[in-house]
Amino acid sequence: MTTPQTRAEARANRTPNRWIPSPQARLWLYGVLVALSPVGVSYGLITVEQGGMWLVLASAVLGVSNLLAARNTPKAGE
After folding, report:
1. What confidence tens digit (pLDDT) does each residue in 16-28 have?
2. Which of 6, 49, 64, 70 shows the greatest Cβ crowding within 10 Å of its Cβ?
């Protein structure tokens, strides 16, 4: 394993979540939740406000806060 070159690389390799340690898995799960939110709204299971609230909660729990986090997630093989 090589030493991280920059602080951003070191932060990207830290594991803020003990339940789902892989950054790629957290990002995938967040993407699934983002896709399910409008489905829940369209079927009347949740309101738009509730959908946003659940996505904020999921991002806090998963440690994935926005698209910038997705761009900084190490890709497989890097």
Report:
1. 556 666 777 777 8
2. 64
Query: What is the distance between the alpha carbons of residues 54 and 56, in angstroms, rounded to a whole number?
Result: 5
Q: What is the pTM of this model?
A: 0.56
Q: What is the DSSP letter of 66?
A: S
User: CA dist 4 to 7, 8, 12, 40, Å?
Assistant: 7, 9, 10, 41
Question: Which H or E element spans position 72?
Answer: none
Rounded distance between C-alpha atoms, residue 47 and residue 43, angstroms: 10
Q: Are 11 and 65 in contact (CB under 8 A)?
A: no
